[in-house]
Amino acid sequence: MSQNPNLSQPFMYQNAYSPNNGQPPTSLNPNPMNGPPSQNTQKFSPGNLGVSPARMPQPIPPQGMSPYTAQNYYASNYSRPPSSTEPPMKPLQNLVPPPGGTNLSQSASPKNLASPFPVEKQNSPYQNGPFSPFNNSNSEQNLNGADPSQVNGIGATNRLMQPNQNMPPLSPWAQPPRMPLTPGQPNQKLSGEGMPPPPTSVPPQSLAVDGKAVPTLSQVPSSSGLPMPFGNQATNSSSPQVTPGTSQPPSARSSRNPSPIASQRYDYMEGQFSNKPSPSNSSLNLPSIGASSNSGMPPPNQRNLSDSRQFTSPQASNLYPPNMPYPPNSTPGSLQPGPPPVGSQSTPVRPRYPQQVGYNQSASPYASLGQPNNMQPPPVSGYNSSPQLPPTSAFNSSPHLPPTSAYNSSPQPPPAPTCNSSQPPYSQQQQPPGPLYQGGLPEGPVGGVAGYDPQLHAKMAGLSVHSSFSRLWGNDSLNLLQDRNILPPVPIEAPKPVLTPERPNCSPDVFRCTLTKVPDTNSLLQKSRLPFGILIHPFRDAASLSVIQCNTIVRCRNCRTYINPFVTFVDQRRWKCNLCFRVNDLPEEFLYDPATRSYGDPARRPEIKNATIEFIAPSDYMLRPPQPAVYLFLLDVSHGAIETGYLENFCKVMLENLDELPGDSRMRIGFITYDGSIHFYNLGEGLNQPHMLVVSDIEDVFLPSPDNLLVNVHESKSLISDLLTDLPKRFASNGDINCCLGAALQAAYKLMSPVGGRVTVVLTTLPNYGPGALKNREDPNQRAGKDISNIGPANDFYKKLALDCSGQQIAVDLFLLCSQYVDIATVSCISKYSSGGVHYYPGYHRTVGRLQVNKFAGDLKRYLTRRIGFEAVMRVRCTRGLAIHTFHGNFFVRSTDLLSLPNVNPDTGYGMQIAIEENLTEYNSVCFQAAVLYTSSNGERRIRVHTLCLPVVSIVTDVLGGADQETIIGLVSKMAVDRSVTSSLSDARDALINVCVDVLGVYKATMSGQVAGALMSPYSLRLLPLFILALLKHMAFRTGVSTKLDERVYAMERMKALPLQYLMKFIYPTLYPVHALDDKNAIHQDDDVVIPQPSILQLSSEKIDRHGAYILDTLDVLYLYIGRAINDQFCTSVFNVPNFSAIPEDLESLPELATPESERLRTFVTWLQDQRPYHSPLKIIREDSRDRHIFMQYMLDDRTESLFSYYEFLQHIRQQISK
User: Fold this and answer.
1) Residue 547: closest CA among 874, 940, 865
2) What does residue 153 show for φ and ψ, rounded to 5 degrees?
3) What is the DSSP string of 1142-1171?
4) C-alpha dihedral over 1122, 1123, 1129, 1134, to 10 degrees?
5) Predicted model pTM
6) pLDDT (tens digit per residue) in 810-851
7) How far apart are the C-alpha atoms of 1172 and 1063, rounded to whole Å?
8) How do residues 223-272 score in pLDDT, each as one tens digit?
9) Which value, in Å, is the radius of gyration of the alpha carbons in the chain?
10) Collapsed DSSP state (helix, strand, coil) of residue 977
11) Beta-carbon neighbour count of residue 307 at 10 Å?
């Protein structure tokens, strides 16, 4: 297949952000880089971006020991936080404004970059966020004459750029030809106040990206067959990106301070400020990216990181690891006790971990013998359940769990089992095989007169002792074409990193990486063709959380990492950072063990025993006194809104949960309604009833009574109740069809600016009046086309307003209840850039849309009562040599790696892509640490810290064997959304297919033996093609099926913001057979409740039996599908009806009957609904129902008019790999 020219560009995004010395832009011009990839011929060269100094706070002497408390997290009350902004930037040293303005048609270079960071001016309403259009405006002026693609600025959205091939790719996708680089000046990082200068100086290096020098990397050939996919994911643009989806590699730069207290300065940590300005004359030359040890790096014996504690004196420089000799090299082919390796290496490689050694399998006389019939396949869940085999490592991700994976010392995988048939074994009644064995052995007795089964014989011939060891070591391979029943019958467990020594690691529900074994070089990452990134759910609900209250929060003085379980104690008074390797002093307070209330080993502290910890921060982490929790509700009362009947439902839920709003006695609330005008409500003290104030001049909105529009909830509760009771009656006959959403949001911004808070907007129709008015852009005839237009916003009005809100710590959440087009692509920007959320209920109506009515009521209750953090910021740090270059989610990137979150909630997740900038060959492991600084509703400033540690490997088969297929799908789906917006939907689909083609092609190239007609996959990636096919058939990316534009865009928005555990169910729903529930494998709770656990089925119509009943969990709705031939006993026991035809379809819940079948089914449905934050209503679908197509459209393994079946998709991948 020929290469698609439209995919010759990398999957890369650029946002140009330039505060323009604190002034707003004068006009907007289009960005030619937002065009199709084939039109983006502009080449970029790197800019010389300076780095601000690390301003360190003065150490706080111990003033007593506050007891450690392990608080129940659910019992915590949260209140409004103070501001958490950053200080103004110091002017960059090496940037000189050009003599004249430039535009994107000119070649960018470091010489024409203006200094984008003013020092004193703070009056710009756009200083804290992007403001240029989303590839739609026809007028954008470059700020300060600087190329917006080269400055730290705002692009309208993720922009498709030319690549810089010198950066490491983060995906398995093909590389375009390398472009020449323009040399620049060396990047300078100013030393922090009170810190010693570095011991060595690095000679100037050539710049490639963000002021960092990079070496030239060898070109990686593109995969043949399908067009080039996402491209070089590691390609960093020359400026930070600031859309919710993208950003640039981290640096120590801070940013403009949008806080109301403009004179107060932060350092570059989460909210911790410095009272003294940092010096600007000291610098630290950074080494060349990927350079050898003699180019600015210490010799290998200084860079070798030891995980064992050493009580020795530190080296002259505390910035590098102490001297440590290399361990003796081991030859994989040598005879040593243990499991057999798969192959041998000609060149000894120093292991990153205790290698598995043993006999050479190629020399074994038994290597080619098949497994005897009486030999049971080895268990693989846990990978070390066999007591005869030693564990592969002494380090676990959890102290309570056994090692879950191991490493093979040879890059050669085992020979694949023989496959002589192109069709897989098939049986309609066959259940999917369990995770213990993927060979697909038949469940029934062996057929034939003499008991001979050719399928069994073929499978047994491919088994050997070697394959058993390979499964234990995580390097087992599968032929995907042999069995379509690849989905395990139980939920998929996250792979657990294996480290040495054993320490607690972060929970995979909070922190997961696409690679549980990190490649030690960028070239190895490129060779694996796997994306490298992390997904994090930082504010996830937890039943309990260890909370630490202390006078001094122990952090690294160099990189500001929080002390964690993976640091090394040099002695009782010093510890070595696991990210930058600096040796730091321990405060006296840290020697106190709060559990035993005695002084002793600092390793017994809770910070060392928990990978997730929360600190109660001292006053250093706040700029102003804690503000009260403020909630403002904007309600659409136009004629269309009244017809839906939502207002009665909303007011009812509000009245029921008014006392459950998170906040303390200072909590305030307000209401605004809007149609063609804006209605304010005076709820001040002394009034007998609420007073409505109408503002008709929406072009210049003002606040008629600012002091009484936001009132204390407890003091004015009676007036609030009267207003909520009266609102549905007051607008029952409203005939105004206009909707001035933009003006209402402007009024909310003016009302909330002094204190910040949360704005909740309910919208039912397209905003068609006043500021921010929109027009219908959807073409119904193009809903099933291959390339969908208007996925991006129509203008930047809501984006600009969102950035203003983010600067004042205001988050905006949208509830869209509509049957017609409302342009979600445009209005969602108000939530996307202010860390808000979007909730969409298509077809909402009080009489004909009862499913959506019930879902809205349940979701609103959760929304009103869930815990919330105000004025939050989040930063993710990683080991030296790694860099974060792209962010995904709803937020605003305040600086290059600091995410501004005016509100943070437990239902939102984030994604980051990682680049390997320097070799990790001397490291045994790498670490990531995410810190969220927020203020709870009880006025406490808190810091929640998560730390994840992963091993480093040097063999491509180990990298592939340690891949996390679910995390890869989660990250790739976010990248595909960005590709759809910046390029086209067809490009994103082709790139998704190439994910499978490239990764499985790489694995095929590593195999020593080839099997004709087979599609081999590592066990860790066995479900990757299944999930990729589900993405291709998902509402967000499907073609050939009529899909409303709003529904498609909303699905994309959810992919960017959903946490991984919910995202996977959103991509590939779960199917359960429930017609024969029993207590086998059931969950037994403490209150004697038994929850059945039926097997999980693949989404194929061949699994649906007419005699059965099935529940399909799609995250949003639970569908109960009942076959036409269902047993009458089931109908009587569950529905209290005699037969199938009498089962009602309008039931909103199952009848409560005193039968075992009814109790089991109701318990299981309730358990499913409790597994997610929002409400999932139950909908009953009979086989003869007109809604049957709703259920059948989720059978993703089946063939459709426009897409392959799962087996045909596997054949297509095999053909592309063979080309």
Assistant:
1) 940
2) -140, -165
3) G--S--SS----SSHHHHHHHHHHHHHHTT
4) 0
5) 0.67
6) 999 999 999 899 999 999 999 999 999 999 999 999 888 889
7) 11
8) 333 333 343 333 333 333 333 344 333 333 333 334 433 433 333 335 44
9) 30
10) helix
11) 17
